[in-house]
Design goal:
By secondary structure, the protein is mainly β. The chain is 11% helix and 46% strand. The chain is built from one helix and nine strands, in the order αβββββββββ. An eight-stranded antiparallel β-barrel has the order 1-3-4-5-6-7-8-9. It is elongated. It starts with a helix and ends with a strand.
Length: 186
C-alpha cells in the first residue's frame, strides 16, 4: 500500500512539473485597464517657462562634456535642473523642475537631443511628471518634441510639446523657453 501511494505521489509531482514547465511561454497577458484605475482619456494643455541658466554662482544647467571643437557645439552634453514657472520672468511662480540632459547632436546645424522630465511640485499635479524625448532644432521658431510617458496623474501619458525661445543671452548662454504642452492621459 505504501508503494502504491509513493507511486501515485511521484506521478502527480511529475505531471505537475511537466504542466508547469510549459508556462514559461506565458510571461505576458492582457489585463483590464480598469485594474489600474484607467478610464476615459483626458487632454491636458499647460504652458510653462523653462529657465536654462548656465551663468552665475548657482547655474541650473552644467556642461558635463564640452563640445569637440570651438567651431560648433556638437558633442556638448549638459545636465539640467531648470525652473519651470508660470511666466517669462525667472522669479515668477515656480510650478516644477525640468530635470534631465540635452546633448548637441547637429554637426551642421544647432540641434540637440532633449531627454528630460517635467517634475511638477504644486497644485493638482504635485508629484506627477511628464517625460520628453526628442530633437530640438534650437534656431527654429517653434520646435515640436514628443511626450513619451509620465507618472502620477500623467501615468500612460503621450502627446507633444511646442518650444518657443522667449529670451536668449548670447554671451552667457542663458535662455527662457516657453513650453506649450499637450498631454493625453487617463
Amino acid at each position: 500500500m505504501a508503494k502504491l501511494i509513493l507511486i501515485i505521489v511521484t506521478q502527480i509531482l511529475l505531471f505537475a512539473a511537466v504542466v508547469s514547465a510549459g508556462k514559461g511561454q506565458n510571461f505576458a497577458k492582457t489585463i483590464d485597464k480598469k485594474h489600474f484605475g484607467l478610464r476615459k482619456e483626458k487632454l491636458t494643455h499647460f504652458r510653462v517657462y523653462w529657465h536654462d541658466i548656465l551663468s552665475g554662482s548657482n547655474p541650473s544647467s552644467v556642461v558635463i562634456n564640452p563640445p569637440i571643437s570651438n567651431s560648433s557645439f556638437f558633442g556638448a552634453v549638459t545636465v539640467i535642473d531648470n525652473r519651470l514657472t508660470t511666466e517669462v520672468a525667472v522669479n515668477s511662480t515656480l510650478v516644477g523642475q525640468a530635470q534631465g540632459i540635452y546633448a548637441a547632436t547637429g554637426q551642421r546645424d544647432l540641434s540637440a537631443l532633449m531627454v528630460m522630465n517635467f517634475a511638477f511640485k504644486t497644485g493638482k499635479y504635485n508629484g506627477s511628471t511628464i517625460t520628453i524625448l526628442g530633437r530640438n532644432a534650437v534656431l527654429t521658431k517653434v520646435r515640436e518634441m514628443p511626450v513619451i510617458g509620465g507618472s502620477g496623474l500623467f501615468r500612460f501619458a503621450r502627446g507633444y510639446v511646442e518650444a518657443r525661445t522667449m529670451w536668449f543671452d548670447l554671451k552667457s548662454g542663458d535662455a527662457t523657453v516657453e513650453y506649450s504642452c499637450y498631454v493625453l492621459h487617463y
